[in-house]
Specification:
Blueprint lengths: L2 E8 L3 H11 L5 E5 L12 E2 L1 H9 L3 H6 L3 E3 L1 E6 L2 E7 L10 E3 L2 H12 L5 E5 L2 E8 L2 E8 L7 E10 L6 H5 L4 E4 L4 E9 L11 E6 L5 E6 L3 E9 L3 H6 L2 H11 L4 H7 L7 E3 L3 E4 L3 E2 L2 E3 L5 E2 L7 H22 L4 H30 L3 H15 L2 H12 L17
Parallel strand pairs: 1-2, 1-11, 2-8, 5-14, 11-20
Antiparallel strand pairs: 3-7, 4-7, 5-6, 9-10, 10-11, 12-18, 13-16, 13-17, 14-15, 15-16, 18-21, 19-20
Bound molecules: flavin-adenine dinucleotide (FAD).
Flavin-adenine dinucleotide binds next to helix 1, strand 2, strand 9 and helix 9.
Keywords: Oxidoreductase
InterPro entries: FAD-bd, FAD/NAD-bd_sf, PheA/TfdB_FAD_monoxygenase
Protein name: FAD-dependent oxidoreductase
Length: 414
Amino acid sequence: MDIDTDICVVGGGPAGLTLALLLVRSGIRVTVLERSRSLDRTYRGEILQPGGQALLDELGVLAPARERGAVEHDRFLLEEHGRVLIDGDYRRLPGPYNCLLSLPQRHLLTELLAACERYDGFRQLAGAKATALVEEGGAVRGVVAGGSAGAPAQVVRARCVVAADGRFSKVRGLAGIGYRRQELFSQDVLWFRLSAPPRPGTRRPCDVRVFRAGGNPVLSYRSVPDALQLGWTLPHGGFRPLADRGIDHIVEQLCRAAPEYAERIRAEITGFADLSLLDVFSGSAEQWVRHGLLLIGDAAHTHSPIGAQGINLAIRDAVAAHPVLVEAVRSGDAGAARLSRYAELRRPEVERITRIQQIQSRMMLSTGRFSSTLRPRAAALMSRTPLYGALLRRIAFGTAPVRLRTDLLAAVER
Ligand SMILES: Cc1cc2nc3c(=O)[nH]c(=O)nc-3n(C[C@H](O)[C@H](O)[C@H](O)COP(=O)(O)OP(=O)(O)OC[C@H]3O[C@@H](n4cnc5c(N)ncnc54)[C@H](O)[C@@H]3O)c2cc1C
């Protein structure tokens, strides 16, 4: 039988579940379609900036998600051959969210989902993949979820559909919305995990690092449980020829790039299954709203992992879309004109963050003799100016105020 709801959210990632929670807490009926049956997504970044932490805390999900396991990082460091070129000290920012938080997405999604389930009107269809849109009179009025393994298809009818289905958004494609992919970054990232000795009880500072020791730059941070997450940068599109030379060749490249971890790399990276390649690109959907349709998070705009902005922006999109959708449902008007307020609010920040990431990427990851002579001087110069403090605040808290409309959160838990 068809499901009738106010808002159908496609994609139960950080964007979709944050929005779903805000809406059900505002008394709006929400159905989330999520193609996966588990909360263990293929590897996703997990560094959360202070701005995102603050919003999740206001929603009451940060503390329980942290309790499941998280690591606080005091600083972001750019290092070259053991020398610190940039020391982005988050402890100098105003508290209490003055750290970079490594929080596995599974922990965040578990708590968001648990919070949603405390409200009437929430429903999640897990293992349900959006395969078609229901359109009437030029407006989107629902989604068809393809039944897996012969199960019948399910139609979800809604006043408005939200595409929160990630960087390769199916809904965006089904709606015929174009996507401008921009090759602004000249590196891809090969992610892998290593074991790390347990930390003693006393709190020892951890850092998110981008370091260059030999070979290409490496991103690294401590993750849970007792793991080290590393990202080896390589020229854009350069993985295939490397892979053709075999895993042993790649392992040697990794050891050269991260000699301090060479022993563990040789012992723990034994096959391609231990590696996860991220094709780094940025891009934006040509339209973020349509009659009866709104795009948020990676479905609307995609980013490089540099500067850890994706989750932050996804959460901020959800917070900005929330009052617009509440009004749309209450007024019975989910036309593009009403929804466009959301796009007007969010596009400028997303464009500014993309520009900041381009600067960060050039500053930290560019290769060649010119960049390695110029980089230390430029980094030293920049980190001594007040401009750097201002830039760090923008990276940490966002470039535009996004206020959570707590006045709309009137629904009571069941
Ligand atoms: C390797 C990697 C490292 C990253 N590192 C960081 C980092 O450190 N910090 C940071 O802030 N960001 C990072 N990012 C980006 C961050 O993961 C994303 O920006 C963020 O997850 C976006 O959230 P989202 O909810 O918009 O999309 P997603 O997290 O992609 O969620 C989309 C959801 O939609 C579901 N879905 C997809 N298609 C369908 C369909 N047809 N029907 C139903 N459901 C569907 C998916 O299963 C998924 O659950 C990284 C990304 C990658 C890939």
